[in-house]
C-alpha cells in the first residue's frame, strides 16, 4: 500500500514528523481522508482532531493531534499542516484544558444572560471549541 510523510508545523517549530498510511482531517469543505500518492491539494482546516494511522513498528496504532485550524497541503507524498497551534495527545495538559473549557462556558453564559457587550461571544465560542477538541484528543490516549 505504501506510506507518506506527515509533518505539522506551528510557530514553535515542527511538532510532528512521521510516516503514515492514512490520515483523516476536517477541512472547511468537509472530512478528508488521505492515502499514499494523494492528488495535490491545499485546504483550510477546522478546529478538530487529526487521526494519523502509522506504519512500521507502530502499524495498527494511530496518533491523534489537536489542531486549532490552519492549512493542509498535500504534495509529492508529503502532508504538511501549518497551524497556529497544535498538540499531540501526550502534550495536552488535561487540567489546563478543563479550566479553559470552564472559562469559555462562563463567558458564553455571561454574554447571553447579561447581554454583556464587553464579552466577545464568538471568541468565547472558539475558545470552547478548542478546549473541547483538546480534551477529546487527550481522552483518546486512555
UniProtKB/TrEMBL annotation:
It is a peripheral membrane protein. Residues 94-141 form a coiled coil. The keyword Kinase does not apply. It is found in: Cell membrane. Keywords: ATP synthesis, Cell membrane, CF(1), Coiled coil, Hydrogen ion transport, Ion transport, Membrane, Transport. It holds the Pfam family ATP-synt_DE. The keyword Membrane applies. Residues 6-86 form the ATP synthase F1 complex delta/epsilon subunit N-terminal domain. Gene3D superfamilies: ATP synthase delta/epsilon subunit, C-terminal domain, F0F1 ATP synthase delta/epsilon subunit, N-terminal. Residues 90-138 form the ATP synthase epsilon subunit C-terminal domain. CDD domains: F1-ATPase_delta (cd12152). It comes from the Bacteria. Produces ATP from ADP in the presence of a proton gradient across the membrane. Belongs to the ATPase epsilon chain family. F-type ATPases have 2 components, CF(1) - the catalytic core - and CF(0) - the membrane proton channel. CF(1) has five subunits: alpha(3), beta(3), gamma(1), delta(1), epsilon(1). CF(0) has three main subunits: a, b and c. This is ATP synthase epsilon chain.
Amino acid at each position: 500500500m505504501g506510506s507518506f510523510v506527515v509533518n505539522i508545523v506551528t510557530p514553535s517549530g515542527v511538532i510532528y514528523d512521521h510516516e503514515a498510511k492514512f490520515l483523516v482531517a476536517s477541512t472547511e469543505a468537509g472530512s478528508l481522508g488521505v492515502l499514499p500518492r494523494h492528488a495535490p491539494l491545499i485546504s483550510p482546516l477546522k478546529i478538530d482532531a487529526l487521526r494519523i494511522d502509522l506504519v512500521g513498528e507502530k502499524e495498527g496504532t494511530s496518533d491523534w493531534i489537536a489542531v486549532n485550524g490552519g492549512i493542509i497541503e498535500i504534495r509529492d507524498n508529503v502532508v504538511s499542516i501549518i497551524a497556529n497551534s497544535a498538540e499531540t495527545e501526550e502534550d495536552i495538559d488535561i487540567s489546563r484544558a478543563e479550566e479553559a473549557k470552564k472559562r469559555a462556558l462562563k463567558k458564553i453564559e455571561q454574554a447571553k444572560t447579561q447581554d454583556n457587550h464587553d464579552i466577545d461571544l464568538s471568541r468565547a465560542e472558539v475558545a470552547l471549541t478548542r478546549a473541547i477538541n483538546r480534551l477529546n484528543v487527550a481522552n483518546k490516549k486512555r
